[in-house]
Specification:
Layout lengths: L2 H22 L26 E4 L1 H9 L6 E4 L23 H5 L5 E5 L5 H9 L4 E4 L5 H14 L3 H20 L9 E7 L5 E4 L4 H8 L3 E2 L7 E4 L1 H7 L3 E5 L9 H5 L2 H4 L2 H4 L3 E4 L1 H5 L5 H13 L6
Parallel strand pairs: 1-2, 1-3, 3-4, 5-7, 5-9, 9-10
Antiparallel strand pairs: 5-6, 6-8
Helix pairs in contact: 5-6, 6-13
Length: 308
């Protein structure tokens, strides 16, 4: 059974919500291992035209550069633009099947830092498929560096540098709109609320990065990555706003469920019923659309307080 066939059952059973969770997971702090173990090159072979993209932001960058014709497959976190969905899906970026990747006969792989598992990478190494690992960092410079790294990898450095400069300018402009805000909102990013247990973002994550870019403060700073919080920790954090991915189906968290949680109810966010929902990849992708996401989040946090 091919990887693509095996994924169909998962997709049918879990629908949009499950896909959004898979989209988020690689946007946490990248774990050790994965492609860091692979033999890395700075660029794919000259003229590489059968490229597999592993990482939603990498796929977005290739489309933004007008280099989408090189793509022969993408991973399951690559949900934008819509046209990318017509490409074969080689699986989730941290659970790649080497058979799925090799089935499209690639002459190169562009993969976001943290992809894997190591066993899959070892098989791809033995198959002598050139691989470029694209660094991931959750700040403005990280996005610029990602774009230039992709351009270098595909032999289009000048095109990528021009686009990176535009994106850098857009990010600077987006950050400036909250420059005059004095009372910074404390934001609690909640990944899930399974069984009433709050799984929330600390530092070192994409959620932390986007909150800071939009002029907010992460309400949780005592740890890195994502962890379950005790009720006491939530109440002590006193967030002004809850931020969540906009989901559908079984993984959605409605407002009654959220604000009836005793810990949330004891915070300013709960008392004032303040919640912001945004598309997961748009909010946390740290790619070409991040400047727009920063503006959207800032407007929803501060409204008339910001400078347009």
């Amino acid at each position: 059974m091919s990887l693509r066939t095996s994924r169909r059952g998962i997709a049918r059973a879990s629908a949009i919500g499950f896909t959004l969770v898979l989209t988020l997971v690689p946007l946490l702090a990248p774990p050790p291992g994965g492609l860091a173990m692979a033999s890395q090159v700075e660029a794919l072979p000259s003229g590489a035209q059968r490229v597999v993209s592993v990482g939603g932001s990498i796929t977005e960058i290739l489309y933004a550069l007008g280099e989408e014709d090189r793509l022969v497959a993408r991973d399951s976190t690559s949900l934008y633009p819509q046209e990318a969905l017509s490409l074969p899906d080689v699986g989730y970026m941290r659970a790649l099947s080497p058979e799925g990747v090799l089935s499209v006969n690639p002459d190169g792989i562009l993969a976001l830092e943290g992809s894997g598992p190591p066993e899959a990478i070892q098989v791809l190494e033995k198959a002598s498929v050139p691989m470029v690992v694209i660094p991931e960092r959750f700040d403005s410079q990280g996005i610029v560096d990602k774009i230039t790294a992709v351009g270098q990898a595909i032999g289009e450095p000048e095109k990528a540098e021009a686009f990176a400069a535009k994106v850098a300018g857009d990010l600077d402009a987006a950050k400036k709109i909250t420059a005059g805000v004095e009372d910074r909102k404390k934001v609690l990013f909640i990944l899930s609320l399974q069984g009433g247990k709050i799984l929330a973002s600390g530092t070192g994550s994409a959620a932390n990065g986007i909150i800071e870019l939009a002029g907010g403060e992460n309400a949780i700073i005592g740890y890195s990555g994502y962890k379950q919080l005790t009720d006491e920790a939530v109440i002590e954090a006193q967030p002004d706003v809850v931020l969540m991915m906009d989901r559908e189906g079984d993984l959605s968290i409605d407002e009654n469920e959220l604000f009836s949680n005793p810990a949330i109810a004891a915070t300013p966010a709960g008392m004032n019923r303040q919640v912001i929902r945004m598309d997961g990849l748009y909010l946390l992708g740290f790619g070409p659309r991040t400047a727009a996401a920063v503006k959207d989040l800032a407007v929803r946090l501060y409204g008339d307080e910001i400078t347009n």
